[in-house]
Design brief:
The chain has helices at 7-22, 30-37, 54-63, 67-79. It is mostly helical and 85 residues long. The two termini are 23 Å apart.
């Protein structure tokens, strides 16, 4: 599994995860979803790392392993579109 190397990469994974959940492209079992709902943002809209547990981190990293997400990211890079944040 490709792990994030910077804070920006780490936060970007959570933003992609949030969008997938919001748009209904990903559903998680109730027990796993609780850790995602506990995620908090700081006043400057950055992710509060203290609110991220292992389950949430694994879900966010897993999102980029899905082929459909990888295709979207490649398309954005080719078109030089900004990421959804």
């Amino acid at each position: 599994m490709d792990t994030p190397k910077t804070r920006a990469e780490f936060e970007l994974r959570f933003h992609h995860l949030r969008e997938a959940l919001k748009n209904g492209k990903l559903s998680v079992p109730p027990g796993m979803g609780e850790s995602l709902y506990r995620l908090q943002l700081l006043p400057n809209r950055r992710l509060n790392f203290l609110s991220v547990d292992e389950t949430a981190r694994l879900q966010a990293n897993m999102m980029l392993q899905l082929p459909s997400v990888q295709d979207v990211l490649k398309d954005r890079e080719e078109q030089n579109l900004p990421s959804d944040e």
